[in-house]
TrEMBL record:
GO terms for molecular function: sugar transmembrane transporter activity. It comes from the Bacteria. This is Glutathione synthetase. It comes from Stenotrophobium rhamnosiphilum. It is a multi-pass membrane protein. Keywords: Membrane, Transmembrane, Transmembrane helix. It holds the Pfam family PQ-loop. The lineage of its organism: Bacteria, Pseudomonadati, Pseudomonadota, Gammaproteobacteria, Nevskiales. It is found in: Membrane. The chain crosses the membrane at residues 6-24, 36-53, 59-79. GO terms for cellular component: membrane.
Amino acid sequence: MINVDLLGALAGVCTTIAFAPQAFRVWKTRSVRDISLTMYVLFCSGLVMWVLYGVQLQAWPIILTNAVTLLLAGSVLVMKVMFEVPTVKANA
């Protein structure tokens, strides 16, 4: 039987690694046009709550993996705000 902490750590590593390519791509291309601001605000809020939940449980896999994912997703959120160029509509 697999150790429950090991299972949690492996799950967290997989979901954390999934965000790395997005963060690196946004940094490299500076393109945030197709990034949803609402999704990243909600997702980062959820990650903060997961970290706090992990702290309450003293569960290092929850704390560590969600904190790293928050760092990656938070960087995409910050880049979304920084790199977004407001579109100017021409007078019709």
